[in-house]
Design brief:
- The protein has 288 residues and is an alpha/beta fold.
- It is built from 9 helices and 12 strands.
Length: 288
Amino acid sequence: MNRRLPHVVLILATGWIGSSAAAQMLAPYKDQEFAYPPVITSEFGGDYRVFAYDEARQARRPPKARGQRIVAPKAHVPQRDLVSETSAGDIAHVAAGRREDATLIVVYLHGRGGTRRQGVDDELAGGNFNRIKTMVAQAGGLYLSPDFSEFDGRGAAEIAALLEPYAAASPGAPVFLACGSMGGVICYWLAENPAIASRLGGLLLLGTYPDDTFLASEAFRRKVPVLIAQGTGDKIYNVEWMEAFFSAIRIASPGYPVKMVSFDKGTHGSPIRMVDWRETINWMLSVE
């Protein structure tokens, strides 16, 4: 894919220091409810795992225990629907948690047809968005779910401009980009932006596509941790494509901090419903 457009250059605060990561780890929250299903396959020391299909989670129903459906109350996290005036235009977004002096910043970038409201919908994805929003807020972090105009360099420039003041207000906070489906376009663009890459704590590629330009990006050079999550039954982005991408990263940089989780027979939306946010972000924070 040829995506060569000029980057927005940002002046961001000094990047985070890995030794402070322990103080920023996400605490347990509904771990049992959102634990991964049984493992079918595990390779490369657990860096590649395939999990059993969980029909209840896929159907966005609450999990069952002893034959009864559990309707677990969702934590209420104060959030604000905001519009920031930036060099790339007015950017609408929802913010939850600390907007200054945050311990970490997690950004969800929606796919085609989505909006900023997707990433803060407490019922969508079986409550998985509520879980990450809650854990980030409880950790003293900031969770952002923004709108953007296009799935291209323009959209990436908008997100970069949105992040500039938030990163400056929380100079010690690593930034985690979670990209759902076509939102991966934005992630790959931002991975090439040196100012953004210097702040990244990790990339979560959730049901998206491979882009080999990542292998020449600043984020790759900095060995920013990557999680690839895919449903094996995804008919939009084939799981074999992402398995090949996982292998390509490992071959291009032996020892690179990359993991892949697949959900057996899971569909295109499986990763946002099934990903264990806490396991993933805590692993990324532990990478030296």
